[in-house]
Amino acid sequence: MEMTDDGLKSELQKQGVFVVPVEFLYNWSRKSSIWPLQFGLACCAIEMIASAAARYDLARFGAEVFRATPRQADLMIVAGTVTKKMAPQVVRLWNQMPEPKYCIAMGACAISGGPFKDGYNVLKGIDRYIPVDVHIPGCPPRPEAFIHAIMTLQRKIEQDHLHRMRCYNKESPAEYPIPAYGEHDLEPPANPEVWQPPKDYRDVTLDEVKRG
Asked: 19-164+176-211 has which CATH code?
């Protein structure tokens, strides 16, 4: 594909004509109009709400329209502790969101279970079932951290390529399995397509270390 000369681009821009790839325009429109799903799970949701209020004004970044239905949202913010009773509902909401969609895990509880990780009823991170694009550490993270995560996600959207996005990958699943209540735990305990248990390096042989 023959590229437009930089000098010609400059002259056209002086006349109000901008020559950009369709992919750039597509990504620019998506990153500038993020619609988060309106729900919260625990105390991190208070910080998320504060970021949309007058003092921090999330609307400045094009992400103010919190939607009450997953069918109109493209960003899931998992803000707070995810219990095993709530995990199936979170995955169900994720499946109902249209592509392309993104996920932010807000706070230590959503990332790893936080101070409740040893509880029998707390999920050790929502990334066991759905793909997470940005993690926000903290307990709870402040609105500034949440806004920084939105900006980080926008930079990620800006660099998306159409042929690499999940929604355009034919091998990517259209829906993720919703965990069910088993006899002792959720079944399955994790979605192997998005999460693998960490490898116990005590069992790694010297040959495997040399191979990397």
From this structure: 3.40.50.12280
